Every structure is written in C-alpha cells, then in structure tokens.
C-alpha cells in the first residue's frame, strides 16, 4: 500500500505502511517547553533515529518486547504498530528538573537516603507516570491510571519493572561514553501479535527523551550547586530562557512557531551536542 501520513508529532512523522507496520520518520524539528520551534537542527533526526534503534535493539536482546523492526535509512525506522497507552513513563535517577521544582513545593518525596539537594542521585531510580493526552504533562497516580482504564494493575507492575530494566541498560551503556543518564521518558503500547504484555515503543534513550549529563563534570557542579550542562536540548532551553526571556513570557504549550528564534551559533552548537551524544553512545559501547 501507499504510505499514508497518520500523525505529525512534534518531532516525528508517522506513516502507516500496511501489514501492521509504521514508518517513523525523525525530522530535524526541535521542541522545547512543548513548543515546536521554526528552527531545525541539522543531523538531529538521523541522530535520534540511530540512537533509538540502538537502544531498542539492546532492549530486544535483553528479552524485552519492543516495536522495533528495522532501521530503514537515515532518520527512518520501521516498527510494529501499537495501540499506545496514554501515559508517559518517567524514570528518574537524579533530583532535577520538574522533580526538583516539585520537591521544593513539598509535592515530591525523596527515596530514603537521598540528599535533599538539586542534582542529587537518588538512592535508587524511581518511576512515575504523566499524562500523554494533555497539552502539558501532569503527574498521574497508579489509582488514576486504573480508574481511567489506561492500564491494569498487572500492566502497571510490568511497566514499572520493565522501565527500570531499560533505564539500567541505557544508563550502563551511556556510562561507557562518559554520559550520565539523569532521567528519561518511555512509552508503551499494545499489540497482541507480539506479546500480551505492554510493548516498549516510541523512542528510547535519545537526547530528546532523556536528560544526559557529562559524567566528568557532574561532581564539581553538584558540589558547587550549579546546573548540570547536558547533551540534550537543555542548551536551547537555556538560550530561550536567558536571551529570549521565556522565563517570564513564552508561547503556550502546543504552539508551532513560524519565525526562527535561534542564532546560527546556537543551532550549530546544538547540532554538535546531538552528534557528540551519538558518538559517545554508539561507538564507545
Ligand atoms: N509503534 C507505535 N505505534 C503507534 N504509535 C507510535 C508507535 N511508536 C510511537 N508512536 C507515537 O508516534 C508519535 C511520534 O511522534 P512524536 O514523538 O513527534 O510525537 P510527540 O510530539 O511526542 O507527541 P504528540 O503525538 O503528542 O505530538 C507519538 O505520538 C508516539 O506516541
Ligand atoms: Mg514524542
């Protein structure tokens, strides 16, 4: 059958190619704060696709059912079509980002033995869920997931255990390239032709779905109370906050901007970050 565009996401275009399969096309589009920028980052799509394919295959070898079929070209991947479960699974190894903000508001409890300090390593990684259907991500409890029939209790238990295994796989591999995995997001879906457990789908361990830090710089920054420089779009976020004033006023989540905002230098340095992440993750494995 003729490939049919069924979804244009923030970053990826999804084509139905028949026989229960989809073609995922990772573009060079960039989103920050859930806003799609008009600027594109050269090589970003190919990096996301390579790194995700790599991690999906590693998970598959570890016996975790995934949607991965084949990497079909630069920036493209063939996958089994899933019925996506409408929650995002967040695995956190460190107290940072929205978890740190929530902790300071008294809305986030730390695993016991964790230092109450920005960037602290949790005594053990923890899993939480956020909604996928709303414009901006909101934490949801297991009770709410059950109540909405998004997952059964067995599925929740499976997803939590599997997410922790995937996290460990991505983390151990990244460590070999001097990258520290602070947190990441995973998505699961259902396809009874593959397995009767939730199948790992979407992208895995990319700079878009994960917060990667430079392992060499971590300890010094942590002690000094500094932010951690990262291999992901944190660089773009920082630019938008400081140079564009997005800390005070920014477009609502879901906006697609039409005017470029980034300087050529920010674009070039961001592209370098993505390419460096791929080199560290894939060749040093
Ligand atoms: N195997 C699969 N079967 C069906 N859908 C999938 C599969 N893998 C990923 N998806 C979905 O394809 C889309 C990928 O596009 P992308 O990541 O750009 O979207 P997004 O911007 O994150 O989310 P949104 O769908 O809210 O725009 C996501 O909605 C994701 O849930
Ligand atoms: Mg996505």
Please give a quick description of this structure:
With 285 residues, this protein is an alpha+beta fold. It has 2 domains: 4-82 and 251-283, Phosphorylase Kinase, domain 1, CATH 3.30.200.20; 84-221, D-amino Acid Aminotransferase, Chain A, domain 1, CATH 3.30.470.20. The protein is built from 7 helices and 14 strands.
What secondary-structure arrangement, pairings included, does this model have?
Elements: E1 4-8, E2 12-18, E3 21-26, E4 29-32, E5 35-40, H1 44-61, E6 68-73, E7 76-80, E8 83-84, E9 87-94, H2 97-104, E10 121-131, E11 139-140, H3 142-147, H4 153-176, E12 179-191, E13 195-201, E14 210-214, H5 215-224, H6 234-242, H7 264-283
Antiparallel strand pairs: 1-2, 2-3, 3-7, 4-5, 6-7, 8-12, 9-10, 9-12, 10-11, 12-13, 12-14
Helix pairs in contact: 1-7
Bound molecules: adenosine-5'-triphosphate and magnesium ion (MG).
Adenosine-5'-triphosphate is lined by residues 7, 9-12, 14, 22, 67, 79-82, 84, 187, 189, 201-202.
